[in-house]
Amino acid sequence: MRTTYRLWLSVASALFIIVSSTSCSDTDKKFDKTPQLSTPQDTVNLPVVSLPEGADTTNAYWQGIDLEPKKPVIPLPVNEEKARFLLQPGYSLEPILTEPQIQQPGAITFDGNGRMYVLELRTYMLTADSEGTLEPVSAISRWEDKNNDGVYETGGTFVDSLVFPRFVLAFGPNSVLTMESNTDNVYMFTDTDNDGKADKKEFFTDNFGRPGNVEHQQAFLYWGMDNWLYSTVNPFRVRWTPNGVIREATGSNHAQWGISHDDDGKLWFQGGSNGLPMSFQFPIHYGDYIVKDVNYAEGFDVPWGAPVKIADMQGGMGAVRMPEGTLNRVTGAAGNDVYRGDRLPKELYGQYFYGEPVARIVRQINPVVNEGLTTLHNVFQDQKSEFIRSTDPLFRPVDMTTAPDGTMYITDMYHGIIQEGEWTPVGSYLRAKIEQYQLDKVVGLGRIWRLNHQDFQRDKTKPKMYDQKSSELLAYLSHPNGWWRDMAQQVLVQRQDKSVAPELVKLAKTSNNLLARFHALWVLEGIGALDAGLVREMMKDSNPRMRIQAMWVGETLYKAGDMSLGADYVRMMNDEDTMVKMRAMMTGRLLKIPGTEKAVKTVMAADQTAGVQLVGQQVLEPVVVNSFFGRSNPNYSEKEQALLEKGADIFNSLCSTCHGTLGLGAPGGRGKLMAPSLAASKRIKGHPDYVIKTLLHGMTGDIEGTSYTGVMMAPMGNNDDEWIAAAASFIRANFENESSLVTAEDVARVRANTTGQTKSYTYPELLASVPKVLTPTDGWKMTASHTANTRKGSTASAKGAFNFEGWTTGITQQAGMWYQVQLPKPATITEIHFTSPPISRGWRPGSPPPIHTYPKEYDLEVSMDGKQWTKLLENAKGDNASMAIRIDPVETKFLRMTLTKSDSVVHGEFRGKPIDFEVTWTMREMKLYGFME
Question: Per UniProt, which keywords does this protein have (predicted)?
Fold first, then answer.
């Protein structure tokens, strides 16, 4: 029997009603030690679950499955769950914040005054079909332990009405950074009136999102020791500066949920579906380095959870260890922490911890370094055990955090289903287990635990960094608890207080505490007070770890134009220490330091150490790795690649003199740049006419109030259209701009339309002449003749065309289908851009090409009143998954696209079975360009 494949799921039949007792909107609400739990229904008439029709019981997926009626899994009161933990000798877990105060916590973070922010993913897997995932009811709450008894009793919702927020990062007094699913912007939310709830929302940065289900989008915005902000999935990093947020490319971290760093500042990323730590060998900002074979000790991927019996593994019976009913291979890791506190045994310090919520374990990892390469060992593998286990099937450890009190906190979502609905369809093994044990009924709960040890007391000192002077914060850079060191550094950098620079220099040079010296260097770097002389002095330090930090921090000065440091980096490639050599070689590749290739070959010939050989080889021949779950390097055609190569030659021979080899702007003296940075530039990423007009006619004067030592951007219009297109394309495609290329035809159009421009533009003149993206507001109305959900958990809406959620007709394209935008007031429209993702027809080699979902043929009309329409395009043909429709400027209030050609379903095969593919009309990431008063 042939089935029909579509790109949407049914709309939720009813909204999930959250138990009223789980509200946490009131501040100063006292901790209720009698939790009110959601209880599975129908405990008398147990559900009958059967194998789906055609299930092959000889297949490992189904073989041996038990589908007899079972008593439902019942959520336990906190103290009863506590009794189910199996801990190592001397350890205990203590609840510090639980439901009803919080619901479905996914992560926590602390601010400089020790207040704990909780990311509450209140819509995660409320049903087996993940209905309501994108309802705007999630939140970030803030909590305090005012009476200092160890329980966070005071607090409530800080930011509400969020659509599955991706992360929370405390960012100064009373502020957090976060973003929602299926969006592209990060915002800062601030409580300006000190009532415990944010009342101000400010833009922080953009171009940050990814499409996909909620488990595959970016997460965990994290402040690294190098003062950059990192996230999972995204192959870039961003950084707050007094002049705005900047961006740089990094390697692909292949992570999903969790980032941490060790004492030396190296980031550790946590993979998700593979169940393994990722990208931990070298700092990710050096780019992609492939390390094989040595990453994990033998048997590392085998979890040793306690018997839970229910065998609810997405991989089917082949993923189950019987008779315990436990996971036999890690598959769903989440949350991580390099423990750096001071109130647990020393043997835990510097160890890596992460949760495996499918296996119901917290794992302790010992990283062992040999010849510069790290191998991870499960500390309790020989005992066939884990650091923490539980016999409670609802224990779901999703985050670990070194806390201000020196212990480690464990975020436990305490949830029934821990697998996104895309993998729990009707007829699947996991769906059968969910229904058998009524796991879908256990929602709205959550617990945060403190890990204690009998030989230690938690630190009861309450942080008050936001209330202290900068000079007082310097002492914390030597604190034995890494949280205090990190937070003091962050607060000092956010303040940009250069008055402490002399004391920081003294600390970096003379302190007996190596870690304090590290942080002193990074504070100096973060406040713009780092000196090349200090960097060179630290490069000669007797401790190789300090030499590495000096090289790392000095990269900022090199990128700012102190090219003299290049000789120091080349010299460090011959250091006596293996790790120093490796880092120097990576720095040489990253910064494109002259002489790197020759020096690396010399080092490799003299040193056969495994790490030196691996890094050296990949410095000489860099590997290419696609980013994970999202935007990756475009697969350019030969013609496009040739255009970019020509643009690279133009930039390197001409433009880099003023804009810098890395596009960050070359120093021009007096603390100014010769020309503006091109990296992650809104101007560069905006309408392509901005770059084209600048290259053709030049620009002079200040840009957004900033002056540059270069006299002007000289006009380049004497070059032909292809030359201009090549230079513009290279700039737009590189330096973290990730924007569309420019064609010679684009240049010819702009050249013809600007023949009257006889002198260079000023910035205001140029900006006023270039179409801008019109940002949708609540006043915009998007409607369509047909609308269907694009993915599970979504709420179908034509507005989805303007974000990553997307919009689709849900059925095959038919003449007469339409999509319409109504603006709150007339605007001049010049272009329409959107993406139409293709439908895959299989994943096997030789599978048929994908089916395109862009409009095959359409009319484009405008209207001022929605009644009288003017046709701008008639029977226009779609031709690309990334559509760019250019029209003559037209003033309008209504814009409507109507299909003029019908299509038909496509017969094919998916996973070896015959299937009909609906040739839907799909749009997402839509942008209207033009002018609006």
Answer: Heme, Iron, Metal-binding, Signal
Positive or negative, the CA dihedral 575, 579, 585, 588 is: negative
318-343 pLDDT, tens digit per residue, is 999 999 999 999 999 999 999 999 99
CB atoms within 10 A of CB 639: 9
Whole-prediction pTM value?
A: 0.86
The dihedral over CA atoms of 24, 25, 31, 35, expressed in degrees to the nearest 10, equals -30
How far apart CA 484 and CA 114 sit, in angstroms, is 10
The residue with tokens 């914060």 is: 473
Contact indicator for 201, 188 with CB cutoff of 8 Å: yes
What pLDDT digit, counting tens, does each position of 241-262 carry? 988 888 888 998 999 999 999 9
Share of the chain above pLDDT 90, in %: 75
- Among candidates 51, 38, 47, which has minimal Cα distance to 70? 47
- Rounded Cα distance, 86 and 77, in Å: 17
369, HSE (Cβ side, Cα atoms, 13 Å): 9
Neighbours of 776 (CB within 10 A): 18
Burial of 480: CB neighbours in 10 Å, binned 0-12, 13-18, 19+: middle
Rounded CA gap, 130 and 118, in Å? 22
Tell the burial category of 394 from Cβ atoms under 10 Å away from its Cβ (0-12, 13-18, 19+). Answer: buried
Residue 755: CB partners within 8 Å, gap ≥ 6? Answer: none
Beta bridge partners of 170: 176
Residue 594: pLDDT band (50, 70, 90) is very high
Maximum CA extent, the chain: 85
- Using the predicted structure, report yes or no on whether residue 663 has a pLDDT greater than 90: no
Which CATH class name applies to 638-770? Answer: mainly alpha
Angle (nearest 5°) at CA 346 between 343 and 350: 100
The first and second tokens of residue 769, run together, are: 């002449």
118/97 Cα distance (integer angstroms): 10
Four-way CATH pick for 47-453: 2.120.10.30, 2.40.160.60, 3.40.50.300, 1.10.10.60: 2.120.10.30
The one-character DSSP state at 726 is H
Structure-token match 């009913």, residue found: 325
CATH code of the domain occupying 781-931: 2.60.120.260
Query: Could you give the CA distance from residue 286 to residue 604 in angstroms, rounded to a whole number?
Result: 19
Pairing of strands 699-700, 761-762: parallel
Provide mean pLDDT across the span 730-748.
88
pLDDT the model gives residue 23: 35
